[in-house]
Fold this protein.
Amino acid sequence: MRRKLLRLLKIMPESKEYCVILTTCGSKEEAEKLALLLVESRLAACAQIAGVTSFYEWDGAVNRDNEQLLLIKAKSAHYDKIEEFISRNHSYDVPEIIQIPISDGSKAYLKWIAAVSK
């Protein structure tokens, strides 16, 4: 059993080396600005924008808003800088900033993330 586990660990891609970071924005313009700056600065390899409807509680009231969801693909090592960047440049008092580790993926795609990121 131990040999099998060691063999599996050798062929598995490095866990948590890459991640997807989620954030939402109140406008497409703000989402596009953040996405472009993150990619231009090479903190992120890719940022996609999708329209979503969000339901949430804020200041004691339940809200429903149309927002823009950013799916940011990056090296996990860049998370702190990306969180700081989003916090500094976001219009929300408390922006959503969530990191989701990528446990596996296309080796070619993950190599591309590494190549285009700092």
User: Anything to note?
Assistant: The first helix runs from residue 2 to 11. The chain has a mean pLDDT of 91.
